Amino acid sequence: MNIKLKLAELQKSRKRRFPIDESSVFSQEQPHCTTSETDTENGEDSIKELIKFEQGITNKGTVAIWYAGYRYTRQRKNKDNWRCSNRDCTATAKATQNENGQFLGTLGIKEHNHLPSIPKKISEEIRNRLKNEKHQNKRPILAEVRANVPMRFTWH
């Protein structure tokens, strides 16, 4: 009996599951492809799905990757290990950058213990657009953002 597998199974069953409704962005199928890799512990061939991560940038300017509303930051410099940017979460991923600049990899065994954050991703994209367009007029970007804000969040 493998104790590590039993322990991992028990930990998975104790985590709270968050419901995702049918209209959610995360219920849609995410892009991925499959590959065959050798498991180093058992020496067995296992099929793992390679996931295409989206690239982002943190407030400090380091590279971050996104998948299904979760942001991962590099665990150590020049390594392929990534961890969830929420420091209370133990979810991990392994990803490498290919020659096209895309990040491909797999998710770790541990699951997220919090909900995904779509507004955080949107705000990060807008902030990066504002930073990149230093000498241009920022009013069109701000007008676009204000136009897309739902009425329930306005100050009227």
From TrEMBL:
Protein name (database record): FLYWCH-type domain-containing protein
Compositionally biased intervals (Polar residues): 24-37
InterPro entries: Znf_FLYWCH
Source species of the chain: Meloidogyne enterolobii
One Gene Ontology MF term: zinc ion binding
Region (Disordered): 20-42
Keywords assigned: Metal-binding, Zinc, Zinc-finger
Record domain FLYWCH-type: where: 58-114
Keyword Nucleotide-binding in record: no
Keyword Coiled coil carried by entry: no
